[in-house]
Design brief:
By secondary structure, the protein is α/β, with parallel strands linked by helices. It has two domains: 302 residues, Ureohydrolase domain (Arginase, Chain A), CATH 3.40.800; 72 residues, no CATH class. Helices cover 30% and strands 18% of the residues. It contains twelve helices and 14 strands. Strands 1, 2, 3, 4, 5, 6, 7, 8, 9 and 10 form a ten-stranded mixed β-sheet that branches. Helix 2 crosses helix 10, helix 3 crosses helix 4 and helix 4 runs parallel beside helix 5.
Length: 391
């Protein structure tokens, strides 16, 4: 497929090179679409940046569709880490006649990249573009887990048109459905209808309040390690750290915490796409939010090139197995600890006829705290919710 038909070259006001520096900046090593007829080759590529200038479905954040190049200006000033980056910047997807046209273009591009085992890094635009990202997995027939970092659930009402506050409805209700699990990290309870929290529980989805996440940031690692697709709403970051958003609020994750979460995401062997949405350069102060997002992307790249490649396989030779027997529960709980990374997984029983369909989902990322909980005769929530879906 000729992907260039969907893109226009990036237009950066500032694009410095570091020819005199001992270490090169990202602007020197990322192969970018800077001029017509010079679309980058995808051979020998690990990561691909995609800008999407689309905000017609944005809620209270008009202007966020013009922000990808402003993030790039800050990103390409950062130095690369101690690894060889194989990354391209495909430019900005041309805005379609309708939002659905833009969705089609983005999903077609992501589908092609995923089929080539290239990880898309999407720069929005409004967060309803997550729906287009999901459609790419649908085209490939992949059942996936989605994680959002967001102060609310973006469910909306069933009858609502799809926008940045209701796109999740479109994903959940679409048939046939390829969503296995949804996780929200950092929701703020006063922004969420209690009925929606009940709906999350009834669907066996995961939702973690902001206070609980901040109290133990390490517990966010297994949350993101379980994701195939991650969608980040910049309004999840507190206003003092990220003012460039029409829906910014006083409370939220701080910049360092968000960088920690995206590095965890980069480290995950399972993750295959990530999107950064809702940044509005018109509301930014001294490029503060653009700088933070660029640093988040840097941490994601750093995590990606430090992957341990230890996602459990059938042989399980590089793992320590722990078996826990609980009182009054017929199934034994099986835990596996990686010898490479010390990370933990739980093996959840699955019906034989469903095993091939859910082969990537019955090994559930967890933490040592989950193992301790099982040793204390309590079934971890992560295990139980997955069990309900598989049995």
């Amino acid at each position: 497929m000729d992907l260039s038909i969907y893109f226009e070259p990036i237009q950066l006001k500032v694009y410095h090179y570091a020819a005199q520096a001992g270490r090169k900046k990202l602007g020197d090593v990322v192969r970018a679409y800077l001029a017509p007829n010079d679309f980058p080759d995808l051979e020998d590529t690990d990561l691909a940046i995609i800008g999407v200038n689309e905000d017609r479905n944005a809620v209270n954040n008009e202007g966020c569709g013009q922000s990808p190049d402003h993030i790039r200006e800050e990103l390409y000033e950062l130095f690369q880490g101690s690894y060889k980056i194989k990354m391209v910047d495909l430019g900005n997807i041309l805005q379609g006649h309708s939002v659905q046209d833009t969705f089609f273009a983005l999903s077609a591009v992501v589908t092609e990249l995923l089929s080539k085992n290239i990880l898309p890094v999407i720069l929005g635009g409004s967060q309803d573009l997550t729906y287009a990202n999901y459609l790419a997995y649908e085209k490939l027939g992949r059942i996936i887990n989605i994680v959002t970092v967001d102060p609310m659930f973006d469910l909306g009402q069933t009858e609502d048109d799809l926008d940045s506050r209701s796109y999740l409805n479109g994903i959940i209700l679409k048939q046939p459905n390829y969503l296995f699990n949804f996780t929200n990290i950092g929701y703020q309870t006063y922004f969420v209808d209690q009925e929606m929290i009940g709906l999350m529980k009834n669907l066996f989805f995961d939702a973690y309040r902001l206070g609980n996440v901040r109290a133990n940031m390490e517990e966010s690692e297994p949350m993101v390690r379980n994701a195939d697709l991650i969608s980040i709403d910049i309004s999840a970051i507190r206003m003092s750290d990220a003012p460039g958003n029409g829906n910014a609020v006083p409370n939220g994750l701080c910049g360092e915490e968000m960088c920690q979460i995206v590095r965890y995401a980069g480290l995950s062997d399972k993750l295959s796409s990530i999107g950064f949405y809702e940044y509005n350069h018109k509301l930014d102060r001294q490029h503060q939010t653009a700088q933070l997002i660029s640093q988040m992307i840097w941490y994601f790249i750093d995590g990606f090139y430090n992957r341990k490649k230890d996602f459990p396989d059938d042989k399980m030779k590089d793992y320590i197995k722990f078996t826990v027997t609980l009182e009054d529960f017929k199934d034994k709980l099986l835990f596996y600890k990686s010898k490479r990374s010390d990370r933990w997984w739980m093996k959840v029983p699955v019906r034989i006829k469903m095993k091939s369909r859910y082969e990537r989902h019955h090994m559930v990322p967890c933490s040592y705290a989950d193992y301790q909980m099982a040793c204390n005769n309590t079934i971890p929530d992560r295990w139980w919710q997955t069990y309900q879906k598989l049995m």
